[in-house]
Amino acid sequence: EMCIRDRSLRQRKLIHYLQQKNSVYTTGEELAGHLHVSARTIRNDINELNQSLTDTGVQITSKRSSGYLLESDDEQHLEKLSQSSNSFLSRDERVRHIAFRLCLSDTPINLYDLEDEMYISRTTLEHDLHALRRKYILPDPHIIFSRHRNHIQFEKNERKRRIILNHLFSENWNYNARGNAFFQYQYMDERIVNQIIHEVNFYMTKYNIMMEDVNMVTLDLAIAIMYYRITAGHELTELITDDYRDATAIHAANELLDSLEEKLNCHFSAIEREDIYRLISCGRLLDASLLNFASVTNFFEPSIIQLTDTYINYINVNYQIDFSKDEDFYITILQYFRYLSLPLHYFNRIDTHFDVARTKFLIEFEIAFAFQPFALEYYGFYLDYTEILYLAFCISGAMAHAKQASQKLKTVIMCHLNLPSSWELKHHIASRFGDYIDITALLPVYTKDSYDFSKVDLVVTTANKEITQSPNCKTLLISPFLTYKDQENLERLIQQEQLQHLYAPSLPSLHDLLTNAFWHEQITNDDYFSVFELLANDFIQNDYVDSNYLTEVFRRESIFTFAFQPSVVLVYSTVPSTHSCLSVATYEHRIRWNTYKIRTVIMAAIRPEDKTLIFKLINELYSDRINPNDTRFIKTKTEFIDFYDNAEVYER
Known about the structure:
4-stranded parallel β-sheet, 4-stranded mixed β-sheet
């Protein structure tokens, strides 16, 4: 099998170029010129390619004074190789290639040349250009992209081009390998990059500057890109300075670049040095060992402290979750909000599908999203999905700590087996869930009729029968051997109980909300935006909310979609309502929304005093006890309410 698809784009282009030469030797200089690399890089590529082609009957041979020749003992082998080398990767990789070419090109790029380079049609190229706009042109640094007939071009803004180049390389950085990055386009000599990495590490250590990995990678690549752009005659000409000055970062940047000037035989101007200084100063971590409640005023701007205090107080007032005593959380979120305020801040991609993160952080995402008005007021912009996700990580850690500090569930074990079995169960449950459960008694099952369960939160039993009708006591049936399934069920029950503590008992039940909701059955529209308007109008026409409600729903959907599970979608806005209620639409035919087939859209309007109702709705509509696909054929109000009644997810 031809193992070419895992080769770099340049190596595949090298193969393709040799194939077009029709058994004529090609010099290393010609190949280097065609691919815009050094002859040394060509030699390394050919060595790697020949290793990939071992036992295929195909080899690249070399002849002194003549060059390189692609040879094969079977014409069919060459045909297979051609198919493999000419398949130009995925759309993502084609888009990166176009962005890379635009960053390096001093003149407009001909679209016909791009088609030939990538062996694609004009239709495919147009789709790629659309993806290019979405990924590299619309986001920061908002480079201007122009198109005139069959030519495309990036604006001649050197700083913006370098930022995009840095992004192109850093997104392919391999944090798991022993070596350094896999450079998709082999623009930089790995020997040069490694030398820069070594120097950066040395001087950051010398000045006791600690950075997060993504900022260190960005710094390494920025210096490498700076070196190559300067040697190609593209220097920065516009100085950018910030109000704050970090003396340590200034000294570290200058000494680092002085050393590299000597080792790389080049010159870095004051403007170039300022950009490297900004990366160091903005990426520099504070010394966490010096941070505590008493010292924060020495390290953080008063406005950052006020922002953090205001947000923590908001969480306490609106969700009855008090994080104010958690010093570790306070210090962490202060650092995060400070980082967001800096002129440069970079985030590592989290290689997890959106839906996985959204499902894991059901409640945490809501608390994090509630920061948006504060973000707009303080930073002048709303946080994007990644920034909200990292804030949700902070909230999740604080909630885990709060759960451990909260009152444990008073639990009794009722086992129909002899004492050694219940005693063993007690210790296994305590070792696994001791932070959340307080086991107060080991009892035989027959005592269920005489035992006082009024002060018991949970009964864990091995007998499949009703233990108690006490309204505040839950019962969980388990095996005497506490299987993995039993542990999952117990963990789920604990999570459900802890979630229920987040919302007040006076909230309306899901059953009553669905019964009294506005209903629109068997909708035939094939999109969800029109349904947003339909459902929101129920609230607006009854003067429950104003038009800002719908505006925020659309804004929320644009940042991260409400649809993260099939069949049922809960849509809501934090704009206050004068009445807590639902409006529900069911589709005649399911629609595609964020890769899922959706049947039912539920929109919630919530009074300020019922703010935690959103937790209750999330907890019960997305309960682990429900398979969302079981609702995919439900089209009527009666069917929907009956389904959730029978699913037994409501609070007692």
